[in-house]
Sequence to fold (211 residues):
Amino acid sequence: MARRFTKAEQSQKTRRVLLDTARALFAFKGYAATPTEEIVLRAGVTRGALYYHFHDKAALFEAVFDEVRGEYLAALRADVATLEGDAWERMMTGVGLFLERLLDPSVRRIVYIDGPAVLDWSDEQRRAPAVALLRDIFAPLMDAGLIDRLPLDALLRQLWALFFQAAVDIAHAEEGAMALHERLVVLRRILNGLRSSDAEGRRDGSGAKGR
Fold:
């Protein structure tokens, strides 16, 4: 005899179906082209069930956005953690991985095309997860003397703006691979400008005494 779901379990199941259905539609068709009627039809639930779990379509999109971006940043963290080489090389490789993941249709459409159009990016909480990731990467570089000592919070905000705009440009580009390559070249050149002259000297030997 099949086990009957409790009300709480059924509610959670319905919410999950709505999220999965909306995610697939938002990634394929985009936010504006996805009516709530299609979401509930494909999910096999009532409109009332949709509005029970989410205030409106924008709230449903925000929940999908948070889930997709959370997975995206978690995967990026995992990738960076397995990289080899020194801290600077890992950071530079990580920048490439960050941009390459934009070729994923869900990330591209939901996070960087519709996300900025639907959600308020002036909200500090909206930027917080990405800024936290940047802090984990760049604070150790500064502590190790690999980049010049700068006001960290100001640096992180500027880097976030830089990476975010690059991601949006790539997401909207007709030739995503070419746009990715061009932004990666520019970003790496800019980041090299942060590198401490002492670190460069240690790298090429010019900082050795007696020279």
